[in-house]
Structure prediction request, 514 residues.
Amino acid sequence: MATEANSDEGGLVFHPMDQFIIKPLFGDGPVGMFTITNSTLWMALSVIAIIALMVLGTSGRSTIPGRIQSIGELAYGFVYKMVEDVAGKDAVGFFPYVMTLFMFIVFANFLGLLPAAFTPTSHIAVTAVLALLVFVTVTVVGFVKHGLGFLGLFWVSSAPLPLRPVLALIEIISYFVRPVSHSIRLMGNMMAGHAVIKVFAAFAPMILLSTGLGLLVTPLSVIAIAAIYGLEILVAFIQAYVFTILTCVYLKDALHPAH
Amino acid sequence: MEGDIVQMGAYIGAGLACMGMGGSAIGVGNVAGNFLSGALRNPSAAAGQTATLFIGIAFAEALGIFSFLVALLLMFAV
Amino acid sequence: MASETQNAADAAASAPGMPQLDFSTFGNQIFWLMVTLVVIYFVLSRIALPRIAAVLAERQGTITNDLSAAEDLKVKAGEAEEAYNKALADARAEAQTIIAEAKAEIQTDLDEAMAKADAEIAAKLAESESKIAEIREGAMESVKDVAKDTAKELVAAMGGKADARSVTAAVNARMKG
Prediction:
C-alpha cells in the first residue's frame, strides 16, 4: 500500500524487501526442496571463497606466508584464540565447528554486500538453523558432560534461597530465548542494513522527477548509501564475530555450568 | 474501511516500535562509553575485555533489532 | 475497495510482504544450508585447519630454533669477547713487565756507566791533581832558581859580590813571606 501511494505520487518505486525474495535460478517454477535458488548460489559462492582462502591460499605451506595465506592464518588464529579465551582450553575440540560457523557467516555477509548479491544470512530460516545448531549442541554437550548437574546452570546457588526458584525460572526463560535472539540478531542486522540501503536507493532518482527537490534529495541519498554501506561492512564483520563469540560463551556454559 | 483501520493501526504501531531503537542506541552508547572510561583508567586491562565489550554491545543492540523487527512485521506481515 | 484489489495485485507480484516469512522456501534454504555447512566443515576440519596448524607449528619450531641458535651465537660472542678482553689484559701486563724490565736494565746500565764515569773522573782528577802538584813543585823550584839567579845578577850588577848562600837564604825568606 505504501508502495502504491508512493508510485502514484511521483513514480519512485519502493520495494526494499524484494531483494530478499528467493527465486529459482533456472526456470520459473515454485521453490521446491532441492531447487537451486539465488540463496543456494550465494551459499555455494561463499563455500568456494572459503575453499579459495583456506585451502588454495595455504597450499604453499610456506613458513613465510604470502598475503592470502596470512589472511587464512589470521582467521585461524582469531577464532582459535576466541575459542580458547572465551570457552576455555577444553573447548578446543569444538574449534572446527566454531570456525565453520564463523567462516560461513563472515563470507555470506561480505559476499552479500556486493551489488546485486543475495545475502543468505538475512533469512530467518538460515540464521535460525545456525542458532538452533548451537543451542542443540550446547544442550547436548552440557547433559553429556555433566548429566543432571547441567541443570545447576539454572540454580543460582549464590542467591538467597527464597529467590532461587524465581531466578531459576528467569534463567530457564533466558536460556530458551538464546537461540531466538542469537538468530534474529544476525538476520535483523543483515536485513536492516540492506533494506535501509534499498530505501535510500529508491530515493536517489528523485532528480529525474523534480529538479528542485531532487537537487537536495539525490545527493543526500547517494551520500547516505555510501555511509550506510561503510557501516554495513563493519556490521557484516561484527555480527559474524558476535555470533561466534556468543557460541563460545554458550559452549563455556555447557562445559563449566557452575554459576 | 475495516481493513484501512487495521492498516492504520499497523503503521502507527510500526512507528511506535521504532522508538525502541532509540533505547537500544542509548544502551549501546552506554556500554561503549563506560568501556572507554574504564579503559582509560586501566589501559592495560582493556585489551582483554574487548570481547566482553562486543558481547555487551550485541545484547544491547539485539533489543533494538527486535523492535525494528516488530516494526517490519507490522509493516509487511500483518 | 480499489486499494484492496491493488493490495491483492501487489501480493501476487511480490509474494507476501516479508520474503523471510515465506515458509514455502524454508525447506529449500535449510537443505542447502546444511549441505553448505557440511561441506565447509569437512573442508575445514580435514584439509584447511590441520594444514594451517602444521604450518603454524612449523613456523613456531623454526622461530624457536632460530632463537636458540641466536642464543648460542650470543653466548659464543660473549665468550669471544671475554677471550679478547683476557688477551688484551695479558698483552697489557706483558707489556708492563717488559717495560719494567727494560727500565731496570737501562737503570743498571746507567748506574754502571755512571759509576764507571765517576771512577774515571775521580782517577783523572787525582792524576791531574798530582800533575798540578808536580807542576807547582817544579814551578816553585824554577821560581827559586830564577829568583836566585836574578838576585845574583842584580847584586852583581850593582857591583857587589853575591854570596850564594846569603842570596839563597834571602830568596827563601822572601819566598816564604
Summary: The first helix of chain A runs from residue 2 to 9.
